[in-house]
Write a structure and sequence with these properties.
The chain is mainly alpha-helical. 57% of the residues lie in helices and 5% in strands.
């Protein structure tokens, strides 16, 4: 054994404790950066968390309108375990919005713990556990999965925990984490069950040990979870078909959920829902592709011989991820979005494999340096190791500062708006095409008729209602006659309208890609504005305004369909200078 090899493997107990502690330290540090952003302002929420918070508010008996269409829908598509965890914390006094901000810390630490010990099962070198989890946490900081505190954030600790217990042939652990994956992120249980099925087939062929209790326990639990989803009926279904989606503007490049793209490169490798999402970031994860070849260089890379059989979990996970990816492509959108089957698992695979490969190569460089007394080689070797090591550890600060971590938080500068709506009755229902309307259910606990954030076009019955509401709202807001406005308010129990100051300016509609999806209503409204016809609602803004703050106008809805004189007693709160 060379001196370089002993550098990485001596005193395994203390060394493992040191690198494990350092791994946890970096996880907490990165999570603290998330927390700093989450609590930097009073009104901050992670963008993707909003839909789930609306659902939780409805389930908790919050101040949303009873049987709120949007809240009921997101409650129906939220995994049971995810919902119950948030409800439990709410009953313990931790509000869902607050819990969504602190939960990522625990998810990231749990993912680091299982990631570190999984690497030890595959490659018993503690430094590799540190590098692998470091790369994983850096990758998580560049994306908003864990920080979203939504179901997809749970895939990292749960899938890593499942793989760890599978590597240790622990049937209770495999069964438990199969259940947890199903309860928190159902796509994860499809990956885990496929991995178990693959190993069962390989065991039958004699390529793997016959660990039948492990495979049977995991598959039994997974099958029970999958059946529970298949047997449940959704009041918002069925799922949109590929044939329908291809003709919907919502699924085109500038739509609400851009999926179909005429550029094959974007569709297969860059698209948010259609592609593999194979992100080589941080760059050190690219070393993962070298890992299968490193053990062949026994003399130059002796540490590669320490790779154990558990390392096969990584290519096996890649294989089942790709299988589900192509199945989801073939059955669009019955299995949801294809990218969900590869982006998370590939991020885990590349980080852990990249960390192992980096340590093996570093040991090879040390081995090369130790065998040569030449000062030049020694300086070059240590210089290369130092440069790569520092770049790997400080990669976010060197290349992503000041944007790391990327949280995609939404910060609202309209405190007066939410204070106003919170003081309104619980049956308040706001009609709005303004972007800020998407934050009203979260920050003010009041219902909105429609909003682009809640316009997911995956389930037909749900989205048909959303499309009808949006279309009706566009017609009513831009109609030059009162008839359209009166019909709208007879159909929907609106209490308030929320307008952008520029809502009736030329170019407002054209610049809003979400509104442009709803044709021909958007085109007709745009034509009316361009012809100089003033919408009927614009004539009553002055008389019906109850709040005016920082470019936003709140109107009293009943006032709009009655004579201005009858509502002249409504004092408008003007907060333009706030």
């Amino acid at each position: 054994m060379t001196a370089s090899l002993s550098l990485f493997t001596r005193a395994p107990g203390p060394q493992r404790l040191f690198w494990f502690g350092l791994s946890i330290g970096f996880a907490i540090f990165y999570a603290s950066l998330d927390l700093k952003q989450a609590f930097a302002h009073e009104y901050v929420v992670q963008g993707d968390t909003r839909a789930y918070l609306v659902a939780l508010s409805g389930l908790l008996g919050g101040n949303l309108v009873p049987h709120d269409w949007i809240a009921d829908y997101y409650a129906s598509v939220s995994p049971w375990g995810f919902t119950q965890l948030y409800l439990l914390m709410a009953h313990l006094g931790v509000a869902p919005l607050l819990f969504s901000k602190i939960l990522p810390l625990f998810l990231e630490v749990a993912a680091t713990i299982y990631g570190f010990f999984l690497v030890q099962e595959m490659f018993p070198v503690p430094l590799a556990g540190f590098i692998g989890t470091l790369l994983l946490n850096q990758g998580l900081g560049i994306h908003d999965d864990i920080v979203s505190a939504t179901p997809r954030g749970f895939i990292y600790p749960l899938l890593l925990g499942f793989m760890y217990y599978l590597a240790r042939s622990s049937w209770p652990g495999v069964a438990l984490f199969s259940l947890l994956l199903g309860l928190f992120f159902p796509i994860g249980v499809l990956l885990s069950s496929a991995l178990l099925a693959l190993r069962l087939v390989m065991a039958w062929l004699g390529w793997r040990p016959r660990e039948l209790p492990v495979y049977i326990a995991g598959l039994t639990v997974s099958l029970a979870v999958v059946l529970s989803y298949l047997l449940s009926e959704s009041q918002f279904g069925p799922t949109v078909t590929a044939a329908m989606a291809r003709h919907w503007p919502e699924y085109q490049p500038h739509g609400r959920c851009p999926f179909f793209n005429p550029n094959p490169w974007i569709y297969w490798f860059r698209g948010s829902g259609s592609s593999f999402r194979l992100a080589i970031n941080p760059p050190a994860t690219a070393l993962a592709f070298l890992l299968p070849w490193l053990p062949r260089f026994r003399t130059r890379l002796p540490l590669g011989q320490k790779l154990g059989p558990a390392v096969w979990l990584l290519p096996e996970l890649a294989l089942v991820s790709l299988a589900w990816f192509f199945a989801a492509q073939a059955l669009l959108f019955q299995l949801y979005l294809p990218s969900r089957y590869t982006e998370h698992s590939f991020r885990i695979i590349l980080a852990l494999a990249g960390g192992i490969a980096l340590v093996i190569l570093a040991d090879g460089v040390l081995n090369w340096v130790s065998q040569s007394p030449a000062l030049g080689k020694t300086l070059a070797g240590w210089g290369a190791l130092l440069g790569v090591g520092l770049t790997t550890v400080f990669y976010p600060a060197l290349f992503w500062s000041p944007f790391f971590p990327i949280t995609l938080d939404v910060v609202s500068p309209y405190p007066a708006l939410y204070e106003f709506f919170r003081n309104q009755p619980s049956h308040t229902l706001v009609a709005s095409l303004a972007d800020e309307a998407n934050n009203v259910p979260v920050f003010a606990q009041r219902s909105i008729l429609v909003g682009w954030k809640y316009a997911d076009p995956y389930h037909l019955r749900y989205y048909q209602e959303i499309r009808e509401r949006a279309t009706d709202l566009i017609k009513a807001q831009y109609s030059p006659t009162m008839a359209e406005l009166e019909l709208f308010q007879l159909k929907y129990p609106i209490t308030h309208w929320l307008l952008d100051e520029s809502a009736f300016d030329r170019g407002y509609l054209e610049a809003n890609q979400w509104i442009q999806q709803y044709q021909p209503a958007a085109a007709k409204a745009e034509a009316l504005i361009n012809r100089g016809l003033k919408p009927a609602i614009a004539e009553r803004v002055e008389h019906c305004t109850v709040l005016h703050t920082q470019g936003l106008i709140v109107l009293d809805a009943p006032c709009l369909t009655n004579s201005p004189a009858r509502h002249s007693h409504h004092p408008a709160t003007n907060l333009l200078t706030e």
